[in-house]
Design goal:
Number of helices: 14
Order of helices and strands: EEEHEEHEHEHHEHEHEHEHHHHHH
Number of strands: 11
Radius of gyration: 20 Å
Oligomer: single chain
Length: about 350
């Protein structure tokens, strides 16, 4: 059965297809974003960047990849995290100058060292500071560029935390925020326990026509369609479920259009995409630095192979392109059917997404 959906809108930008790729610390660099776009993601976000890092960033080869955007990936969002309101505004100006189409503010990261420095999810405990960040960032960014927020449902499940959430939600929209992504876990939960989708449904009903994007526990195409149907959110932000599986966006589209996600990519299709990922990453980082960066992706791609544990173990040992090619020759030479990852690999590993 065909499922209908309203095209996702972020301010003046018509995103269209309602499944987007989240900002993922250490993962959503240009190669990952570009492949997600090619395989159906309508919008992607770069890995979160510290405002003070952006302000001090010089044009050096070793750090130039942080602000690189491929012509194919527009619209693309740049995500900011920090502690001091004025630094956010300065960081936002850097992202605008680099060509990002949307500026996203991170009020959701639950990582302990981030909270200890009064960043990320810590701001959910101080609405006045959070809204000052929103006001100054919105004022620093040209009117035609949307500013958005990523937040969790609260610091914890106390009544005061709930009050703070809605105070920030209302105040942000009043300041001109174009959309808010809401993760269904609290900051205290980090990545433990289920994402509370009923809270997403409550928030969407509360805000009416304003744009809410849902996040949390989106590991399969069925999860994405179910969140859209059960909560009424305007879009879904796929985080850990997209690492090593950019095909998830095609599968969501197929499920919405025809009622079936289709078949998972075969091993030759996987090999072709893995090699393309390596090629793009090598262009970006250089041959000396690409190996360690790509190893973590190979480990995630292994989840689509029918012999996941063995393939994963071999990707762990990859150091060079020769190592990479040996793994592909060993496990991807014959075109066997692939498998749908069930998300258990990501759930067991815990924190990958800073949001």
């Amino acid at each position: 059965m065909q499922t209908t959906f309203k095209p996702l809108q972020i301010g003046p930008l018509t995103i269209g297809f309602p499944a987007v790729q989240a900002a993922l610390s250490g993962y959503s660099d240009l190669p990952m974003r570009l492949l997600a776009r090619r395989l159906g993601a309508s919008y992607t976000l770069c890995e979160v960047m510290l405002d003070e890092f952006l302000v001090q960033l010089k044009e050096r080869k070793r750090t130039s990849h942080f602000l690189q955007i491929h012509p194919e990936e527009h619209p693309v969002g740049g995500q900011l995290m920090g502690a001091e309101p004025r630094q956010f505004a300065l960081g936002a100006e850097k992202l605008v100058a680099a060509g990002f189409d949307v500026i996203d503010i991170n009020f959701g990261c639950p990582v302990k060292k981030v909270l200890g420095r009064c960043r990320g999810g810590y701001h959910l405990s101080q609405p006045d500071v959070a809204l000052e960040i929103v006001r100054l960032t919105r004022a620093a960014v040209p009117a035609e560029i949307p500013v958005t927020i990523k937040m969790r449902r609260g610091l914890d499940d106390s009544p005061s935390s709930r009050d703070n959430f809605f105070r920030i939600l209302d105040g942000a929209f009043d300041c001109g925020i174009a959309a808010i992504t809401v993760h269904g876990r609290t900051v205290e939960q980090r990545y433990i326990g289920p994402s509370r989708w009923e809270f997403l449904r409550e928030v969407k009903a509360y805000v009416g026509d304003r744009t809410i994007i849902g996040s949390g526990d989106l590991f399969t195409p069925q999860d994405c369609v179910r969140m859209l149907a059960e909560t009424g959110v305007d879009g879904v932000s796929v985080a850990r479920g997209a690492i090593g599986n950019p095909w998830i966006f095609q599968q969501v589209a197929s499920l919405l259009e025809s009622g079936t996600p289709g078949t998972p990519p075969g091993l030759h299709a996987q090999r072709e995409l893995i090699l393309e990922h390596y090629r793009i990453a090598e262009e970006l980082y250089g041959p000396e630095r690409v190996g360690p960066n790509m190893r973590k992706f190979g480990i995630k791609y292994a989840a689509l192979h029918p012999r996941y544990l063995e393939v994963r173990a071999d990707f762990v040992g990859v150091r060079s392109f020769a190592d990479w090619q040996r793994v592909l020759d060993k496990w991807y030479a014959e075109d066997f059917p692939g498998v749908f990852p069930d998300g258990s690999q990501h759930k067991a590993q815990g924190s990958l997404e800073c949001g």
